């Protein structure tokens, strides 16, 4: 749902439901948006008769926080362990790792990707 809000901008439940393109019930989308509001992940404002929801943070900052939390909780704070898990479970292949390594080296030399 956050992906939809980042893509569409401020949206009501109906717009998010449509943007998800899934089999989730309208009431499920409404419930999750309310939970996200209660957790402080989204803000809402009454527009007419419906709430309009918007993300509190940028996609980059929210994803960064989520990844940090995942690494801390699941990998003992080690990003290396996360990468090794991706390799071991074949979710990332050697060619992709090599490409990422080149991008990292380029970014450390002041290049942009």
The averaged pLDDT comes out at 92
* Quantity of strands, as a count: 2
Low-confidence stretches: none
The Cα radius of gyration reads 18 Å
Would you list the SSEs in sequence order as H and E? Answer: HHHEEHHH
Determine the structural class based on helices, strands and strand pairing: mainly alpha
Summarize the structure.
The protein has 113 residues and is mainly α.
Describe what this molecule looks like in 3D.
By secondary structure, the protein is mainly α. 61% of the residues lie in helices and 11% in strands. It is built from 6 helices and 2 strands, in the order H-H-H-E-E-H-H-H. The chain has helices spanning 2-8, 13-20, 26-38, 59-74, 79-88, 94-108; strands at residues 42-47, 50-55. Helix 2 (13-20) packs across helix 3.
Task: Provide the fold topology.
Layout: H1 2-8, H2 13-20, H3 26-38, E1 42-47, E2 50-55, H4 59-74, H5 79-88, H6 94-108
Antiparallel strand pairs: 1-2
Helix pairs in contact: 2-3
Keywords:
113 residues, mainly alpha, two-stranded antiparallel ribbon
């Amino acid at each position: 749902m956050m992906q939809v809000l980042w893509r569409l901008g401020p949206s009501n439940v109906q717009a998010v439901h449509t943007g998800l393109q899934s089999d989730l019930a309208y009431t499920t989308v409404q419930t999750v948006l309310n939970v996200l509001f209660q957790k402080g992940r989204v803000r809402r404002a009454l527009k007419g008769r419906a709430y309009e929801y918007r993300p509190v943070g940028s996609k980059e900052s929210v994803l960064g926080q989520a990844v940090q939390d995942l690494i801390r909780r699941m990998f003992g704070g080690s990003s290396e362990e996360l990468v090794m898990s991706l390799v071991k479970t074949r979710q990332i292949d050697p060619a992709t790792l090599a490409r990422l390594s080149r991008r990292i080296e380029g970014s450390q030399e002041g290049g942009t990707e």
